[in-house]
Automatic annotation (TrEMBL):
One of its GO terms (biological process) is phosphoenolpyruvate-dependent sugar phosphotransferase system. The chain crosses the membrane at residues 116-135, 141-165, 186-208, 242-259, 271-290. This is PTS system IID component (Man family). It comes from the Bacteria. It holds the Pfam family EIID-AGA. InterPro entries: GatZ_KbaZ_carbometab, PTS_IID_man. Keywords: Membrane, Transmembrane, Transmembrane helix. Coiled coil: none annotated. The keyword Membrane applies. One of its GO terms (cellular component) is plasma membrane. The keyword Ion transport does not apply.
Length: 291
């Protein structure tokens, strides 16, 4: 008599996904990164697929090893591993394959997730919500409310769709995408889009005025009157007339260089920005821009 094919129930799949969605960062640490959270999310699947205590212990052990990804897009990894564990329970897959797949998925899912979700979708959503808040003081609260609604719902729907996609397509679908080059194309496209969004946010929300101006009382020969406080020279207007938002761009590039290349800490960078702001403000008072 043939053995009954083991299948993960929809209820268990949902439980596994919800565990990952709500607890993916609860146990992040240096030794296994998200490994413990991954094993926690896989525990309902393991309990359903395997019968003996030894089989469950072995499965749990291989799923708490080193793992790291961007949690939202990375939910596709959970779906794929659920499918592989199902195959393993039916003796159609080996533990080595599952371990190798988990390691192989770390790079592409992290890159796509950071480019698509962290560097593109979240900044765009924040830009829209901040614009709504700044557009009208009477409804400034709408931006925050919109973000609190759209972000968690959007995150949940994206993660759940990717989780089911990973479970349905499995390793074959992921290999097909990687071998066709579509994965690299998607990664490059998301990286470029993320850089464009970052550039737009820099121009829109990073402020670095140059408060240097020359103000004099000027005699108007046509009217015979003395015009008081005429601005003869404004360094900020002149600079923006030649290259709009040049100083915010240079400030952003400088912060990136110090953080990414020189490995400065965020606290040190904030201290430098504070000192720079005090110096520029002092220049503004010296030239009479701020009174």
């Amino acid at each position: 008599m043939s053995e009954v094919t083991k299948k993960i129930s929809p209820k268990t799949l949902k439980k596994s996904f919800l565990t990952w969605f709500f607890f993916n960062g609860c146990s992040q640490q240096a030794e296994s990164m998200l490994g413990m959270a991954f094993g926690h999310a896989m525990s309902p699947v393991i309990d359903e697929l395997y019968d003996t205590k030894e089989e469950k212990a072995e499965a749990l052990q291989r799923n708490i090893t080193l793992f790291n990804t961007e949690a939202q897009v990375g939910s596709i990894c959970n779906g794929i591993v659920c499918g592989l564990e199902e195959s393993k329970a039916n003796k159609q897959c080996t533990s080595e394959v599952i371990d190798s797949v988990k390691v192989a998925l770390i790079g592409p899912t992290s890159a796509i997730g950071d480019s698509l979700w962290v560097a593109t979708i979240i900044p765009i959503l924040l830009t829209i919500c901040m614009s709504i808040s700044q557009a009208n003081q009477a409804i400034s609260w709408m931006g925050a409310v919109l973000y609190m609604i759209v972000y968690p719902i959007g995150t949940f729907l994206l993660s759940w769709w990717l989780f089911r996609l990973g479970y349905r397509s499995g390793l074959t679908g992921m290999q097909s995408m990687m071998s066709s080059g579509r994965l690299d194309q998607l990664t490059n496209a998301m990286t470029i889009l993320g850089l464009i969004v970052t550039g737009a946010l820099t121009a829109s929300y990073v402020s670095f005025p140059l408060p240097i101006q020359i103000v004099k009382d000027v005699f108007d020969a046509s009217t015979g009157e003395i015009l008081e406080g005429v601005v003869l020279f404004n360094a900020d207007d002149m600079l923006n007339g030649i290259f709009p938002h040049l100083l915010p761009l240079l400030l952003t590039l400088g912060v990136y260089y110090l953080y990414a290349k020189k490995k400065w800490s965020p606290l040190k960078l904030m201290g430098v920005i504070l000192v720079l702001a005090l110096a520029v403000t002092g220049i503004g008072y010296l030239f009479g821009v701020y009174t």
